[in-house]
Amino acid sequence: MVGLTTVELIIMAVVATNLKKGQCIKYSGDLGIIQGLEHRTPGKGNALIMATVRSVSTGKQKAIRFSSDEKVEIVPTDRQKLEFSYSDPSGYNFMDLTTYETITLDESLVADSKDFLKEGLEIEVLFIDGDAVSLSVPAIVELIITESSEGVKGDTANNPTKPAIMETGLSIQVPLFVNQGDTIKVNTEDKTYAGRA
After folding, report:
1. Where do the domains of the chain lie, and which CATH numbers do they carry?
2. pTM (2 d.p.)
3. How crowded is residue 51: how many other Cβ atoms within 10 Å of its Cβ?
């Protein structure tokens, strides 16, 4: 990721009203991925576009306001589906599903997504100028519970939960009726139990 902002990329400009979620834009000397867009029309004046943008370099989100006729620089990107194979000291290894080549991603890029990576999981990786800059996992991932205590019968009125450790090492709260060895669905956005698989 080093030097992405200094690399000369082929950049085109579009009017803010034509921006789309998932596009990469250049703003204030940084590159960012559009996470969300909201069109606002105030009582007086021109319409505005509120964009939620995640910085490629820092990973932090911020809201940026564009006037509807403002030109915004779009950076060309490439999205690839990769399948997780394994991790080792060199990083997280994925297989390109079209070329069957192994692509290794750095731990800093994988970040919190590592809690959901199991062999065979398909993810989408965003590349800018040949460099991987972000990855996204499915909204729901099925994981096996490797450690969990037995549920205590009795108090069911308050939706009681217990801690459980998944096959990836992720620890979440699950309902009492779920047991070690069960496969469950986990919401990857907030790391919560989403039901039995």
Report:
1. 12-75 (2.30.30.30), 78-136 (2.40.50.140), 140-196 (2.40.50.140)
2. 0.73
3. 23
